[in-house]
Amino acid sequence: MENLESMLKEVSSRIFQAGGIDRAVVTKRRSRMCVGVRASHRYLLPNGVILNVSSTGSTYFMEPEAAVELNNMEVELSSSERKEEQVVLSLLTSEIALSKMKIKVLLDRILEMDFAFARASHAHWMDGVCPALSSKGYNNLAVDIEGIYHPLLLERSLRRLPDLVRSKSQTSPYSDLRKDPLELVHVFPAPIDIKIEYGKRVVVISGPNTGGKTATMKTLGLASVMLKAGMFLAAQNKPRLPWFDLILADIGDTQSVEQSLSTFSGHISRICKILEAASESSLILIDEIGSGTDPSEGVALATSILQYLKERVNLAVVTTHYSDLTRLKEKDDQYCNAAMDFCLDTLHPAFRILWGNIGESNALTIAKSIGFDERIVSQAQSWVNKFKLDKKQEQKGFLFQSLVEERDRLETQAKKAAFLYSNAVHLFHEIRDEAQYLEEQEEALKAKETQKTKTEVRAVKMEIEAVLKDFEKQLKTIRIDQVNSLIKKSESVIASIVKAHQPFEELASKRGREFYTPRLGEQVSVKSLGNKLATVIEEPGDDETVVVKYGKIRARVDRSNIRAIVANPAIGSVRSSRKQGQQGMKNNLKELRSLIAANYKDEDSYGPLLQTSRNTVDLRGMHVEEASHQLSMAIDTRGPKSILFVIHGMGTSVIKDLVLKLLRDHPRVAKLEQSPMNYGCTVAYLK
To answer: Measured between alpha carbons, how far is 342 from 348 in angstroms, rounded to an integer?
Structure first.
């Protein structure tokens, strides 16, 4: 490479000396080293190869004949070099891949530390304080912030953050930021206090333009976002705010010529999206609600929106010039008023919030102060007085009409209530008489049912005892090769007896399950544990589940999986009969009972439903692709006739839906059911 460059520099110098170029040029075109030469002097490079031409066509980039072989070697070496680089990179990649999880964890930790240092630097730079989540028992304030600055307005008054990281020996760039106010770039903005009591759902901020209504609302929104991000606030004492899951805002003019939206249409479009996304833990911020249309319709629409938000969100803060919205507090304590202070002497806003007050726009005063024609202002003031008087008369008329309508409505309701009361008394006497009659009928029916049950039990017992006695007699005289046929015949006879009384059995079983309540310390049979005997260690709860203990294992099972252990009189009869006769008869009777018990074969061949770390896969917090891969691997590693517990959680249900779809479509999954111990877990029975 050095020989090639040296030769080309020498050739380019000769061309320059011969007037073939303005200055010696050695460059690369099409991955080959070449020299520049005027088109009129290309004869200076006989047998040279033209690789490129300048945009003007006056300069050729040519490869001298003597450089062809060296260029070829350079191309070959470059290709070999790239191959070796790929080999080295592949080896490095393989080495890194072995520790990819450690590297990922390390990068995550570094990122967390970087975020923490960034937040700390920002807090130091703004001289911030750590906020806290509000508690109702603290001072009865849902939002309690004193002396907070709008963070973006405050940044203009602070020095710029340093661009470079300084060494430990250098002075901290934050050490003297707030020592001397005269050294600051700008004057500090005015701090504000935001105090909202618990139970207040809607805050209506009124006041003049440029008074700070919108800035106050933005400050609350930014403070809520910074709290969620773990950032400090530029405030005094200990700021306290609720936790808002969503912070939704409509601030500013949303007029759009491209989308054919007027100011009002854009405003309503944004509010519509906010109402769709809002939840009961959301913060809603709306600037100039209901503006941009007829004031009467705007007030009506704004009132309806605020009533909707009051019932469905944590807190809504709105700004307005409509005085009607400030009167909503008179009818509902969940509303709260706030006014922006305005100094009438200086005609300048004081940038201070007066909580519980109603602000005035002071439009005429401001217009007069900036030199507006006094005649127009005076005429406007007379119109304002007239409108106020007309509005008061109108309100009185509305109030009188509403009172008359309310009186008529209450009279109608009183008549309906008296009529309903009379009907209720009559119905009460009828129901009482009917209840007494039903109680008498129930007692008679119970006595009849009890007698019928005793009769049927006695009949079944006598029939089974007769079959067993007949079977014992035949066993004494029967040959060995006829034992199986005799057992089948006896089994058929007993089955027919059981079938004949099946309705009674089903009724008794159903009633037993309906009224049976396991007691503390009682032994029960648990189907989900393979019909094992377990001990009840907790009283049944309201969720129809019972905690049982099987050996050292504690499990919460559904009451439908629990059966009481009841002695059977027929079994006692069989046992007394087994003590008589020969040993062969005992064995055959035992075999007969096994055949009969086979009718009640347990459907669960998967063993006890017990969750361990080996048969559990936890997919919470994973992405869809990772969760799908982990679930497939878990199924592949499980043996036949095994159980797999899949924990997917109960969050957005994305992972749960994925798990259920994969398990239903998987050929090895026989059935699914929800885990009795965890509602965020699905149990898969594998083939």
So the answer is: 6
